[in-house]
Amino acid sequence: MGYNQAYNAYKNTNIRTASQGHLVVLLYEEAVRRLAEASGLFGQDGTVRAPDIEKFNSCLQKAQAVITELQVSLNMEKGGEIAQNLMSLYVYFNNELMAANINHDRKKIDFVLDMMRQLTDSWRQAANSTANAPSATVSNVLNIEG
After folding, report:
1. What is the mean pLDDT of each run of 10 residues along the chain (146 residues)?
2. What sign has the CA pseudo-torsion 132, 18, 114, 94?
3. Where does residue 43 rank: exposed (0-12), middle (13-18), buried (19+ CB within 10 A)?
4. Alpha-carbon distances of 19 from 13, 44, 52, 146, rounded to whole Å
């Protein structure tokens, strides 16, 4: 088994056995990774080189897909104000990333990236503190039956 196959097997097992909170953290980490990659494609002159435009677009679209997945996972009935605030943020982030993709706006990408990093840290703390708690703790915000 090659390194890539072993890594993918490990990654798939990690996802299948992860707690609800850890799955959210994994989604955030993927969005952060894609946004950082897109931001890194800007050159010294503040533009994306022509050969990198397809990769730039792909990174932003994948980040938006992750944010949309986070959005649809919210439990608006049980999550209360937290779920409503997260929904507003996710809608805002996707709108900013769509504009950033069209206009190649690094400032918008970096702003969303910074916010997603902060949210990742918050979710990581929540997931760690609820690791031994009943699943209803995390599922109040997420659309998952606990």
Report:
1. 56 54 93 98 96 98 98 93 96 98 98 98 87 50 52
2. negative
3. exposed
4. 12, 41, 36, 11
With b for 16 or more beta-carbon neighbours within 10 A and e for fewer, the 106-129 pattern comes to bebbbebbeebbebbeebbebbee
Q: Dmax of the chain from CA atoms? A: 51
Q: What's the helix, strand, coil split of the chain in %, to 5?
A: 75, 5, 25
Q: Which residue, chain included where needed, has tokens 């606990």?
A: 146
Q: Is the pTM of this model over 0.70?
A: yes
